[in-house]
Each structure stands twice: as C-alpha cells, then as structure tokens.
C-alpha cells in the first residue's frame, strides 16, 4: 500500500505543471463520467423495466442537488472530451509535437475551449434550475 | 564480521579506465569492479571536447604527428616509448569504441567527425589539425555510457557504492583491497590476484576546480600509505577556461570552433604569447599567459578573469584575419546556429550558471584546476612500478588519471586523457587477467581490515575541536594561491607549513555521525585526509623542482632546465616525511627542443 | 539574501519517522541548491547525507525534489526558485535509505531491462574502421543520447509512483537511443519488450518527466516515437 | 543519402491487448465527441431535465435514428469508460491475481449493464408511451 501513499503524495504534492494537471483532471473527469454513465444506463432502463419508477428517477434528477451535480458533470465531460481529443491528436497525428511549449500551450487551450463550451451551458442550466426549483425568472 | 570475496581481478573505479579494464579483464578472468560512485556518475562523463586519434578523416594526419605533438605538449617530460604506443593504439581504440556503439558525430560521408584541439598540429604546416574525435560536446559522457552499456551486456560484476580504503600487500605482493559498503557501513575484503586502480584524480585539493567532489585522490593516497611512490605530482594542469568562480569547464573545443580570448582592453592577448596557433596553444601556455596578464593588470575588473568570445561576429572576424578555411577550402564562417549545434552543453552551462547566451555574449573565464598529470607510476602494461629502476610490483595495476605512465609528462594535451583511459585501461585489463591466470592467490594477512578500522576509529575519536569543513576550505585556498598556476619558493614553503599545520589540526576533527548506513560524513572526512596528504606531496615535489616546465611554472626559475630536471619525480610518504627520488625520462625519437606555439 | 531551508531528514538507525530540519542562512541568489546543502554540511550539521559529485549537472547524482519538483540540486540556482523558502526532499517513488539518499536499484533494474546497449552481430567493416552513419541518421537519436540516468524523470511520473514495475521514461529514453540507431539490429526485441504491460502504454503523457529532465531531452516525444514504431512496425 | 543503406527493418510486433486498447481509447474517444457531446448538450442543456418526462424518453428512444445513436453511444462510451476504469485499477493493483479478479468483475459489470441498456433501447417501442 506504500504505492498508494506515494501516488497520493505525488498527485497532490508534486508541483507538476500543465501536463500533470491535465492528466489528473482527465483521470478524475473520466472516472466521474463513467460512474454517472453506469447509473444513468441503469436508471434509464427503468423506462422499460419499471416505467412507474422512472417518474421517481426524474424527481431525483430534478432536485437541486442533482442539478448542481449535473452542471459539474457537464464540465467533466467537456473537459475530458476536449482533452481526449488533444491527446488523440498528438498521439496519432503529431507525436513530434509532444514538446514542452506545445504541451503547455495545448493544455491551456483545452481549458479555454472547455470553459467556452461549459460556461454558457452551465449558465443556461442554472437559469433553468433557478426557474424550476426556486420559481425565479417567472418560473 | 567481515565479508570476504575472491576474484582473479578486482578493478577499483568505474570510470572510463576502470570499465575498459574490467571489460578486457573479464574476458579471461573472474573480475569484479568496485566503485564508490555508480559507474555512470564517474568523472569521465564530464569530459567534453573529444578523444584524440589520427584517423585522418578530414585531412591528412598520422600517429607520428600525434606522438610528436604529445611529446612537445608534455614539455618533453613524457616517456616517448609510452607516448608512441598510445598514439598508435589510439586509432584502433577509437574504432573499437565506435564498434561498441559510441555515437560519434559524423562527417558528411558518414565517418567519425573530428575537430581541432589545443596543441594538435599538422607537423608540416604547424597549423591546427582536426584530430579530436567527438560526440557533440559530450564525448566523455558517451564513452562512459557506451562502456557501461557494454559492461551490462557482458554481465560484468559491479559492487556499486563500495569505497576502497586500503590495499593489501603481503611480502611485496598484492593480496587484495578492503572496501566499505556505503549502504551498510560494513567492511568487505576483496581477495584478489590482481588489483587495478582506476580511481581518477585529485583536483578537489584546489579551490577553483573543474573536478567533481569525488576527485579526492583516494587511489593515490591508499597506495602511497602502503609505501608506493607517486610520480610527478607537482605537475597539475590548470585549464585556462573555467567559468569564473565556479570552475566549471568550458572545453577547448569552443576555441577549436573559433572562440577567442580577450583581456580587459579587448585585446586578443594570445597573439603575443603564441603567435602561431594563438588561442589554440596548449593549456599550460594559456593559463600562464592569463596569469601574466593578470599581473600586468589586464584582467577584467581586476577580478582575475578574462573573456572567451564565441559570438559569430567575433569568430568570423578572426577567422578572416587568420585566413582559416574549411576542409573543402572555403573560408571558415559560422552562424549562431552552427555554434550552438557544436557546443550545446556549454551553451546550457552558460545559460544555467551565468544566465548568458554564449552566441551573444562573451563568457567570463579563469584558470581552473583540472587534471593530474602525476599519479601512481606504471609502465605501458599498466603495471605499477615502485622505484627508480621501474621495478614491477606483481599484481598491482593502475590506469586512467590516477596513473602516471607517463604519457602526459609536464602537461597533458586536450583529448589525450580519454585516449589514455581507453588505451591503458584496455592493456592493464588484458595484462592483469593474464597475470592472474598464471598466479596464485597470496594468502590474506591475519587481520586484513585492521588498518582501515584503525583509520576509521581515529576519525571517530578526535577531540572535535576542529571542523573538517574549515580545514578543507583553508587547504583549497592555500593550494590555489601558492601551489597554483605560478609558484615560488616562498609560496611553496608557506604552503608546506600550512598543510602540515592543517594535518595536525585534522587530528582534532571528530565525525559526528556515528551511524553505519551511508555515513557520508565519515567517508568525506577520510577523503579530506587523503587530500591533505596529496597536497603535501604536491607542494614538496614542486618545491624541489627548481625549473619551469609544462604545468609547473616557477616564478623564481622561469626557464626549463633540461640539464638538471629532465627527470621524473618520485615521492614516497614515509610516515610523516616525504622522501623524493628521481628517474630518467625515456627519450626515443624526439630530443628536447624549445617549445613554442 | 536570507532564506529558510527545510531539509528532509531520516536516519534509519535512529529515527522512526522522517522529519524536516530548518536552517536559516544568508545566500547568494546565484548559489546552487547543492551549495546550500554543502553549507549545511559545513556549518550546521555535518551528518546530512546526499549523493553528489560533478556539481554541474553532468553526473546525475543529485536529483531530488526541491520545492515539490524534481531537479538536480547542482543545476538549480536559488534565484530560479523565486522563493525565499526552499524545501528539499528525496525523490518520490524510490525507497528512502537515509536523508536525501534513495534506493536506485529498481531504477537501474528497469534501465537494464530494455537492452540498453548496441546489438549488432554482423561483420565489422573489412578495413577495421568505423561503421558508417550519416549525420541525418545520427541526428535521429541525438536527443536521447544525452541521458545521464539521474532518475528525475522516472520519479516524477505518476505511472511510476503507482507502479514501480513500469519501466519508466528513463528506460524508454535509453531504448529509444538504440532503437533508432541505424547501426543497431535489435529494435524488434526492444519494441516487443516495451509493448508489454509494463511498457510504453503505461505512459499517460503526464509530461512531468520532460519538465523535470535536466538534460532537456524531449522525453515524451521519444516515448511517442516508440509507440508509433510499435504500432507501425517501422523505425 | 544513406551510406549504411540499411534495409528498412521488418519488425514483427506481438499484438497485445494493451496496444489494441490504446488505439481503441483514442479512436473511440474521437467518435465520442459527436456522440457524447451531442447527447449531453441536447439532453442536459438544451432540453434540460425539467422538460424530460417518461413519455419524452420513450418517444425519443423509439425513434429509429435516436435508437441507433443511443446504441452507438452505449457501446462506445461505456466500453471506453470501463476500459478506462480497468486501466486505472491496473495502475494501483499490482498483484496479478487480484488484478485478474478485479478485471473479471469489471467485465461482468460492463456486460450486465450494457445488456440491460441494450435491452431497454431495443425493446422500447412507441406503443409503450402512456
Ligand atoms: C570537465 C572536464 C572535461 C574534460 N574534458 C576532457 C576532454 O575533452 N578530453 C580528454 O581527453 N579528457 C578530458 N578530461 C579529463 C578526463 O575526463 C579525465 O581525466 C578522465 O575521465 C579520468 O577517467 P578515469 O577513468 O581515470 O576516472 P573517473 O572516470 O573519474 O573514474 C574514477 C572512478 O573511481 C571511482 N573511485 C574513486 N575513488 C574510489 C575509491 N576510493 N573506491 C572505489 N572507487 C573509487 C569512482 O567512483 C569512479 O568510478 C576532462 C575532465 C574534466 C573534469
Ligand atoms: C467525449 C469524448 C471522449 C474522448 C475524446 C475521450 C478520450 C479519452 C482518451 C484519449 C483516453 C486515454 C487517455 C490515456 O490513455 O492517456 C481516455 C481515457 C478515459 N476515458 Fe475518455 N474520452 C471521451 C469520453 C469519455 C466518456 C464518455 C467516458 C466515460 C464513460 C470516458 C471515460 C474515460 C476513462 C475512465 C478514462 C481513463 C482515464 C485514465 O486512464 O486516467 N471518456 N479518454
Ligand atoms: S531522461 Fe533526463 S531526467 Fe530522465 S534519467 Fe535521463 S537525464 Fe535524467
Ligand atoms: S511523466 Fe510519465 S506518464 Fe508519460 S509523459 Fe512522462 S512518462
Ligand atoms: S552533482 Fe553531478 S549532476 Fe549534480
């Protein structure tokens, strides 16, 4: 188990740069998304296996807590996807571009693109959440 | 409890010489290498410029010329039979390295690339010749890596991080070595038929040095304590271009590529000291020129440094003035890019330690203690010889910087040390294996580790009144000031007295760490003892030699004196006294002449 | 300038647990961190244990974690750290033996596993001279010949932290040096070794290795080239 | 010019799972951009959970186009994700036996959930709406 300790020390304590953070975020977001996906497949299957219960599921989905979680999920998928494309592009098409400058810059670019996608989405989702759950904006 | 191991051949040291010896010895005899550093950490890895061999890949060259240049470079103190042997063997040795995988830089037609280097000339035109075979500016690194790789391939047995502390002699024959295992603090006895010392130099005695922390002269000190003389210890090379204050080496190759030295007036002062090859004169000549310039007040800011300029503008300007051409006859002109590609590591040092880009700014340099020409006397087979008659001590070998064959005489030419390692490393390996096959083990003494234990317990038993660090500091400063580039009787006497005083004070040092595991303090304090001993031998040998020759420059005896001093110094450490003796220089083809560049 | 130096200490013969010793000292911004550690040994606590030799970034002895990142202590100047607090710790992922000294054996074992030596059993040129190689062929692996086996890369790699069987960037760099050498004939063997579970596929391009390499080797590029060679079967 | 005139070496590499998985992660990832991003943007952002009802879900899943889309998404996203999880576990679990057990469990989880998802997608038809 000393490896686990080393790993955690390294993940949190090592002052890695962009590549290190990109790796950590990619891993965390990937695991987050797959966890959600597993649950999501199962709950959606209620539509077929237990349609009555699906309404309950939808209630949970509409809860405030879940709404916030959903905003996070959207970030996770956006980040993971955009960064995944960065990795796939460099690995498959431009292996020579795995250089310090390009890695640093592309890691920032990924963050920017993610935010460009996420911020409006999150805004709209929060708007909906506030409207439906808190009756704001004439909801 | 001590651990006893038995090998036909034990190699002490895992640098270029040690690995080469191990590779050849292990082909025939059961061999082990013990090294206080991981072999790849050895100082051979620091060598930058190149390895000299008359391959003639770019222009006409011959081992004869290489021989003559080396003899001349040695200020006629080198043994000419050994030099001739080395320079002829060099060619095959370089091809051997290539076959082992060494990634030499290449010429356009795929051959090993070569560059000019200080003191290497075309004997006919007297112009610099391209003789230094190189792999960028990390030739030594590539030699060390390549040899280590081959050792792995050949399953050579390594005792990494084992520090030898004593040589076992029984009735004038080698019985083995005693080493401490750093990781456990345990003593190990290596019972051997033949022992090869390849422990490198001792440049850490001086304050400003290009040498590694590990360069504490363990090999010389160990054998000297066992009654073996040290040869030509007064000859220590000061390399003219160490980075100001740090001593980090800026290879001669920088001047080979066209770099020029300037004093504070912006004058190319080497024109005055070596009118023919100017900035590519040999090291002792340039270091001495710098000293004289300093004395004349021409050093920059009065701080004893000069500028080495490799900016393309300067290089091209002076290449034009000198009429330097490329092999195809076109004028020699360079771009910043080209310079960078030839000396990437140097550029990196300048960037890291000085924050300057050498293709835009000049590099501040000063002479730095660099290379021990002297050491354990050997013959061309690497056998240690212990007196004026060159009597062989059976089973004991030395190779590399620790040895004095003597091929470098009073001054080593750049690139010749790597040649020395490879050639004599190889031959000592071959010969040691041969010897071991025909010899029996000499029985170990009753208590083989006694002397080492005694030395260690003394280091623990000191009163603690004195600090090792302070003693080291004072020794280095004293040596740099008085046993440096220029020496005088007064200075040397001062130094000798000071070192004796430091040796006394050293007895009051106490090692605070009483542990066994990686007790670096203990070992480093022991190393300081070695350095003090060698400092004394160096100063004593220098005081006796009342002439100036190569790396040994006496202010009070400025001329070379072939009548009285064309001989090698031998220095014995008899308890606390240094006894000096002399043996003749071997001269075959080249009678001494005045040495001008 | 005045700095606060914190040094990781652990003496296996005395201590149950590691501790940090703190030293306040006046230093020159141009001092190397190695110089500071030498000041500690000279003036404060001579029992501090570390490896070092060349003092100019060429022997690979003194890789360690400085302010949380791997450097050679002799190649990083105080001013480069932009801080008056300096924390020095041993490399992560290798067992600490004493103070800043770690057990390098697993690292060298990984290195040896990739056949880091020239293999070519074909006859040598008849004239006994060098095997030919063009400057272009030589350039192909120039970068990876620079490695000094300091382990700064491997011990900064998240994949290595979690599993020291991963051969690690340093081993791949040294394999690369031979795979792309036109004189070598064992690329196939090396690529098959690196195609294993503990080989190149463990690299998640976390890039700490390249950031840490004191020789500025483009490690991740080299790893990517090896991956490509495995996939395409071409070197 | 190549003076060594080295024959391009014919190198045979033993194909293995890691190598294939590495490629698969990248290709499936690229494919997942339209699939996963599309799905998420539509469902979570544009439509939003508050508009989603059982009827909506049934209707959508019953349309042939969306059915295909969802099946692809299920196959690629969950496969990609579960292999990702397997790789992460492999970083931390070193005992080969333990790892074999864990990956078997992951495989079963993947299979069961995928089958449940597949049945749902395949079986739903418009008639099921209320
Ligand atoms: C910066 C620099 C640049 C140089 N450039 C050039 C150049 O361009 N061309 C050239 O020809 N020469 C050059 N030289 C000189 C040359 O590199 C050295 O003289 C040569 O490498 C010495 O090799 P060696 O094998 O004798 O010793 P090293 O390579 O230093 O090996 C010594 C070995 O002995 C071991 N050792 C030491 N003491 C003990 C002990 N007590 N017990 C066990 N093991 C021990 C060490 O661990 C090490 O493995 C340069 C030197 C320096 C410092
Ligand atoms: C949207 C498009 C996506 C792209 C482009 C993408 C790309 C990638 C890539 C290239 C990797 C391999 C990383 C590596 O080996 O270094 C990866 C890993 C991973 N992906 Fe995705 N992915 C996407 C969507 C998803 C989805 C939807 C999930 C969850 C179901 C997911 C979960 C994971 C996980 C868990 C990993 C392993 C992470 C790790 O090894 O650290 N990915 N992804
Ligand atoms: S690749 Fe760089 S960081 Fe890694 S061991 Fe080699 S020199 Fe050190
Ligand atoms: S840090 Fe590790 S994950 Fe790859 S890019 Fe370097 S080896
Ligand atoms: S001491 Fe040699 S690399 Fe730092």
The CATH topology assignment of chain D is 3 helical TM bundles of succinate and fumarate reductases
Shape of chain D: elongated
Question: According to CATH, what is the class of the largest domain in chain B?
Answer: Alpha Beta
Query: What value does the average pLDDT of chain D take?
Result: 89
Low-confidence stretches of chain D: none
Tell me roughly what share of residues is in helical segments of chain D.
over 70%
What's the number of extended β-strand segments of chain B?
A: 22
What is the correct CATH architecture of chain D? Answer: Up-down Bundle
Tally of separate domains of chain B = 3
Using DSSP, what is the number of strands of chain D?
Answer: 0
Poorly predicted ranges of chain B: none
Topology:
The complex is a heterotetramer of chains A (139), B (597), C (235) and D (130).
Chain A: H1 2-13, H2 18-49, H3 51-62, H4 64-92, H5 100-134
Helix pairs in contact in A: 2-3, 2-4, 4-5
Chain C: E1 2-9, E2 19-26, H1 33-44, E3 63-66, E4 69-72, E5 85-89, E6 96-98, E7 101-102, H2 105-112, H3 135-139, H4 158-162, H5 168-179, H6 187-194, H7 208-212, H8 219-232
Helix pairs in contact in C: 2-5, 5-6, 5-8
Chain D: H1 17-47, H2 54-62, H3 64-92, H4 96-123
Residues 147-153, 169-170, 173, 212-215, 217, 219 of chain C line the site of iron/sulfur cluster.
Question: Can you describe this structure?
Answer:
The complex is a heterotetramer of chains A (about 140), B (about 600), C (about 240) and D (about 130). Chain A has about 140 residues and is mainly alpha-helical. Chain A contains five helices and no strands. Chain A has a single domain (about 15-130), classed as Fumarate reductase/succinate dehydrogenase, transmembrane subunit (3 helical TM bundles of succinate and fumarate reductases). In chain A, helix 2 (about 20-50) crosses helix 4 and helix 4 (about 65-90) runs antiparallel to helix 5 (about 100-135). Chain B has about 600 residues and is of the alpha/beta class. Chain B has three domains: about 1-235 and about 375-445 and about 575-590, FAD/NAD(P)-binding domain (3-Layer(bba) Sandwich), CATH 3.50.50; about 240-365, Succinate dehydrogenase/fumarate reductase flavoprotein, catalytic domain (Flavocytochrome C3, Chain A, domain 1), CATH 3.90.700; about 450-575, Up-down Bundle (Methane Monooxygenase Hydroxylase, Chain G, domain 1). In chain B, the strands form six sheets. In chain B, strands 1, 2, 6, 7, 8, 9, 16 and 17 form an eight-stranded mixed sheet that branches. Chain B has a four-stranded antiparallel sheet with strand order 11-14-13-12. A three-stranded antiparallel sheet of chain B has the order 3-5-4. The longest helix of chain C is centred in the last third of the chain and has 14 residues, at about 220-230. Chain C has two domains: about 1-100, Ubiquitin-like (UB roll) (Roll), CATH 3.10.20; about 105-230, Fumarate Reductase Iron-sulfur Protein, Chain B, domain 2 (Orthogonal Bundle). In chain C, helix 5 (about 170-180) runs antiparallel to helix 6 (about 185-195) and helix 5 (about 170-180) packs across helix 8. Helix content of chain C is about 30%, strand content about 15%. The interface between A and D is large, with 42 and 43 residues. The complex binds flavin-adenine dinucleotide (FAD), protoporphyrin IX containing FE, iron/sulfur cluster, FE3-S4 cluster and FE2/S2 (inorganic) cluster (FES). Protoporphyrin IX containing FE sits at the interface of chains D and A. FE2/S2 (inorganic) cluster (FES) binds near residues 54, 55 and 59 of chain C. Chain A: Belongs to the cytochrome b560 family. Chain A: This is Succinate dehydrogenase, cytochrome b556 subunit.
């Amino acid at each position: 188990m000393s490896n686990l300790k080393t790993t955690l020390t390294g993940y949190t304590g090592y002052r890695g740069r962009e590549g290190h953070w990109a790796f950590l975020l990619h891993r965390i977001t990937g695991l987050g998304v797959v966890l959600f996906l597993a649950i999501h497949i199962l709950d959606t299957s209620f539509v077929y296996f237990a349609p009555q219960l699906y309404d309950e599921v939808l209630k949970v989905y509409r809860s405030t807590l879940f709404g916030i979680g959903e905003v996070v999920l959207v970030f996770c998928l956006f980040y993971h996807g955009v960064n995944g494309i960065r990795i796939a592009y460099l690995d498959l098409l431009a292996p020579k571009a795995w250089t310090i400058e390009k890695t640093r810059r592309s890691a920032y670019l990924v963050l920017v693109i993610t935010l460009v996608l996420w911020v409006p989405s999150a805004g709209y989702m929060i708007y909906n959440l506030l409207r439906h759950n808190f009756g704001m904006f004439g909801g | 409890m001590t651990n006893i191991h038995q090998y036909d051949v034990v190699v002490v040291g895992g640098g270029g010489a040690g690995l080469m010896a191990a590779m050849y010895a292990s082909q025939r005899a059961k061999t082990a290498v013990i090294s206080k550093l991981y072999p790849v950490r050895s100082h051979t890895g620091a060598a930058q410029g190149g390895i000299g061999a008359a391959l003639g890949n770019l222009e006409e060259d011959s081992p004869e010329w290489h021989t003559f240049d080396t003899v001349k470079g040695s200020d006629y103190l080198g043994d000419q039979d050994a030099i001739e042997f080395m320079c002829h063997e060099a060619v095959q040795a370089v091809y051997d390295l290539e076959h082992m995988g060494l990634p030499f830089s290449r010429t356009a037609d795929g051959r090993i690339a070569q560059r000019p280097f200080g003191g290497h000339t075309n004997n006919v035109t007297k112009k610099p010749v391209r003789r230094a075979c190189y792999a960028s500016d990390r030739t030594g690194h590539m030699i060390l890596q390549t040899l280590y790789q081959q050792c792995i391939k050949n399953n050579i047995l390594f005792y990494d991080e084992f520090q030898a502390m004593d040589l076992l002699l029984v009735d004038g024959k080698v019985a083995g070595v005693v080493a401490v295992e750093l990781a456990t603090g345990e003593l190990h006895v290596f019972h051997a038929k033949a022992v090869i010392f390849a422990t490198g130099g001792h440049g850490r005695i001086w304050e400003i040095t290009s040498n590694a922390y590990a360069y504490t002269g363990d090999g010389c000190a160990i054998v000297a304590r066992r009654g073996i003389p040290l040869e030509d210890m007064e000859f220590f090379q000061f390399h003219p271009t160490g980075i100001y204050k740090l001593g980090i080496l800026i290879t001669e190759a920088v001047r080979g590529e066209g770099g020029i030295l300037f004093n504070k007036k912006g004058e190319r002062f080497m024109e005055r000291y070596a009118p023919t090859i100017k900035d590519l004169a040999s090291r002792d000549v340039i270091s001495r020129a710098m000293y004289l310039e300093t004395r004349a007040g021409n050093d920059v800011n009065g701080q004893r440094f000069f500028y080495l300029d490799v900016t393309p503008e300067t290089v091209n300007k002076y290449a034009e003035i000198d009429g330097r051409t490329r092999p195809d006859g076109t004028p020699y002109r360079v771009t910043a890019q080209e310079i960078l590609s030839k000396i990437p590591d140097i550029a990196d040092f300048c960037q890291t330690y000085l924050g300057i880009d050498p293709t835009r700014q000049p590099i501040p340099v000063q002479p730095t203690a660099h290379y021990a020409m002297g050491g354990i006397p050997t013959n061309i087979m690497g056998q240690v010889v212990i007196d004026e008659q060159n009597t062989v001590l059976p089973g004991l070998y030395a190779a590399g910087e620790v040895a004095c064959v003597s091929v470098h005489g009073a001054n080593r030419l750049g690139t010749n040390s790597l040649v020395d390692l490879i050639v004599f490393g190889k031959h000592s390996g071959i010969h040691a294996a041969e010897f071991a096959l025909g010899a029996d083990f000499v029985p170990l003494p009753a208590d083989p580790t006694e002397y080492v234990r005694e030395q260690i317990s003394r280091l623990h038993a000191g009163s603690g009144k004195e600090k090792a660090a302070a003693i080291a500091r004072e020794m280095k400063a004293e040596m740099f000031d008085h046993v440096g580039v220029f020496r005088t009787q007064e200075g040397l006497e001062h130094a000798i007295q000071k070192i004796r005083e430091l040796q006394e004070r050293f007895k009051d040092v106490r090692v605070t760490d009483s542990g066994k595991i990686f007790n670096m303090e203990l070992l480093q304090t022991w190393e300081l003892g070695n350095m003090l001993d060698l400092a004394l031998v160096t100063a004593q040998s220098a005081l006796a030699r009342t002439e100036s020759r190569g790396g040994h420059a006496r202010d009070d005896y400025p001329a070379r004196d072939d009548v009285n001093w064309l001989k090698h110094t031998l220095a014995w450490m008899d308890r606390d006294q240094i006894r000096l003796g002399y043996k003749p220089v071997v001269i075959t083809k080249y009678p001494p002449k005045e040495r001008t560049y | 300038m005045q700095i606060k130096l914190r040094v990781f200490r652990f003496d296996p013969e005395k201590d149950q647990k590691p501790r940090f010793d703190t030293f306040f000292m006046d230093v020159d911004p141009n001092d190397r961190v190695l110089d500071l550690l030498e000041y500690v040994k000279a003036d404060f606590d001579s029992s501090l244990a570390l490896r070092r030799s060349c003092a100019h970034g060429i022997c690979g002895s003194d890789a360690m974690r400085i302010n949380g990142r791997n450097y050679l202590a002799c190649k990083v100047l105080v001013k480069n750290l932009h801080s008056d607090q300096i924390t020095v710790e041993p490399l992560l992922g290798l067992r600490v033996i004493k103070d800043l000294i770690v057990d390098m054996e697993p690292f060298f074992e990984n290195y040896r596993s990739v056949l880091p030596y020239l293999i070519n059993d074909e006859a040598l040129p008849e004239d006994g001279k060098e095997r030919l190689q063009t400057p272009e062929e030589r350039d192909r692996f120039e970068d990876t010949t620079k490695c000094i086996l300091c382990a700064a890369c491997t011990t900064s790699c998240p994949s290595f932290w979690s599993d020291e069987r991963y051969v690690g960037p340093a081993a791949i760099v040294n394999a690369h040096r031979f795979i792309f050498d036109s004189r070598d004939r064992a690329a196939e063997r090396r690529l098959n070794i690196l195609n294993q579970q503990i080989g190149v596929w463990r690299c998640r391009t976390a890039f700490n290795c390249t950031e840490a390499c004191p020789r500025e080797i483009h490690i991740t590029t080299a790893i990517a080239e090896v991956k490509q060679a495995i996939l395409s079967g071409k070197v | 010019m190549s003076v060594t005139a080295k024959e391009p070496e014919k190198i045979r590499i033993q194909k293995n799972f890691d190598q294939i998985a590495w490629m698969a992660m990248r290709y499936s990832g690229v494919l997942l951009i339209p699939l996963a991003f599309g799905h998420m943007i539509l469902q979570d952002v544009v439509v939003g959970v508050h508009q989603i009802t059982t009827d909506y879900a049934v209707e959508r899943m019953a349309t042939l186009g969306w059915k295909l889309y969802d099946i692809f998404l299920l196959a690629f996203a969950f496969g990609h994700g579960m292999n990702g999880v397997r790789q992460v576990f492999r970083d931390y679990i070193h005992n080969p036996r333990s790892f074999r057990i864990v990956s078997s469990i992951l495989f079963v989880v993947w299979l069961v959930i995928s089958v449940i998802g597949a049945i749902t997608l395949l079986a739903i038809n418009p008639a099921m709406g209320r």
